[in-house]
Design goal:
The protein is an alpha/beta fold. The chain contains eleven helices and 15 strands. The strands form four sheets. The protein has a seven-stranded mixed beta sheet. Strands 11-12-15-14 form a four-stranded antiparallel beta sheet, covered by helices on one side. Strands 1-13 form a two-stranded parallel sheet. The radius of gyration is 20 Å and the shape is globular.
Length: 354
């Protein structure tokens, strides 16, 4: 069975051995205040920056999920309000989380084949955080480097730019210096089980949360930062998840090679479906299409039939999501999915739905 579900997604086959090694090496009961754990965490941070080409002056935090990142960013970096720019379900959920804590927060929406006009955005000087979803998992759209840079250059007042990169982090080469905060969960492009997220903060973001000095929550960035200076955590961490992340990073190719591979594979899939007659890409604008999540649209009955027949041949396709649920399906183009799975997928479509 090959799974193309965009999350939780396929894991690397090596994870089976990593889990056995973690048990045999005693990591499941390792003290998280001991030197052995701090050595592991230090090496994990070093390898993460090396493999993903993260600037050395960015600070790494490891949390439980991308959802936790939504809450932490509002608690620790948003004393007044945030502005959310989104076109899909996960960007909307981030906004809803923020608004529940900071009612003054606002949002701007845009379409699948559109890019927001930055000159018309309500960039209020009172805004603490401008929030975007770089790769919207729900509808297979993507905001590219040029847009992010232009937005960063137009930030009002002391606003920071925060980027949800949950389904692209560790899959494509991101230019981290173009934003202050990046985060994503490991159950997508990292090819690992769910239960851990990675957050990367610029020096500017670190200075800001230290100045705000929010300490009312157990997972405040100030508390986490003070512990992370010594490669510790302020609460009992997911030691197994960190161990798996460390092992994966040691064996993984640099992000430049991963990015090139996924880009080429996505181009082949889009080229095929651009010529198809029954299923077509959900996103028609090539400038807003995701590299790591390919969305296809069709009549609801056809979508159900495609998923059913694919599953019978050992191919699990991802369901549509949110308002696109009934008339679309999603195909994850994540690093852990082997090329032979995609070859089998294309052969399936060519034979069954040509």
């Amino acid at each position: 069975m090959y799974t193309f579900n965009p999350g939780p997604a396929a894991v690397y086959p090596q994870v089976r051995q990593y889990l056995q090694d973690a048990f045999d090496e005693g990591w499941l009961s390792a003290p998280h205040r001991g030197e052995r754990f701090t050595t592991l965490l230090r090496q994990t941070v070093t390898d993460l920056k090396t493999r993903l080409n993260v600037p050395q002056d960015y600070t790494v935090f490891l949390m439980g999920s991308a959802t936790e990142c939504w809450e932490v960013l509002t608690q620790s970096l948003t004393p007044t309000k945030s502005l959310h720019i989104y076109n899909g379900a996960f960007g909307e959920k981030w906004f809803e989380y923020a608004k529940a804590l900071r009612p003054a927060s606002t949002a701007v929406t845009f379409g699948l084949d559109e890019l927001p006009d930055i000159s018309k955005l309500p960039l209020d000087p009172q805004t603490d955080l401008v929030c975007i979803t770089q790769n919207e998992t729900s509808n297979a759209t993507q905001l590219r480097d040029g847009f992010i840079l232009n937005l960063f250059n137009r930030l009002p007042g002391n606003a920071l730019l925060a980027v949800d990169a949950t389904s692209s982090l560790a899959g494509i080469q991101l230019k981290y210096i173009k934003a202050d905060i990046w985060y994503g969960s490991v159950q997508k492009c990292f090819g690992l089980p769910a239960g851990l997220s990675v957050m990367l903060l610029s020096p500017r973001a670190v200075t800001r949360f230290r100045k705000i000095n929010e300490r009312a929550h157990y997972n405040s960035l100030v508390h986490q930062y003070e512990k992370m200076l010594n490669y510790q955590t302020n609460y009992t961490p997911n030691v197994l998840g960190i161990y798996l992340l460390s092992r994966m990073l040691q064996e993984r190719a640099p992000i430049k090679a991963v990015h090139q591979h996924l880009t080429e594979r996505a181009a082949k899939l889009y080229d095929y479906f651009d010529q198809a007659t029954q299923l077509t890409p959900l996103v028609m604008n090539t400038e807003t299409r995701s590299t790591t999540v390919i969305g296809l649209q069709g009549a609801p009955a056809l979508i159900d039939e495609v998923k059913r027949r694919a599953l019978a041949q050992g191919l699990q396709l991802g369901n549509g999501y949110g308002s696109w649920k009934s008339g679309s399906l999603r195909i994850a183009n994540f690093p852990a999915i082997p090329d032979e799975a995609f070859e089998q997928l294309v052969q399936f479509f060519a034979k069954e739905f040509a």
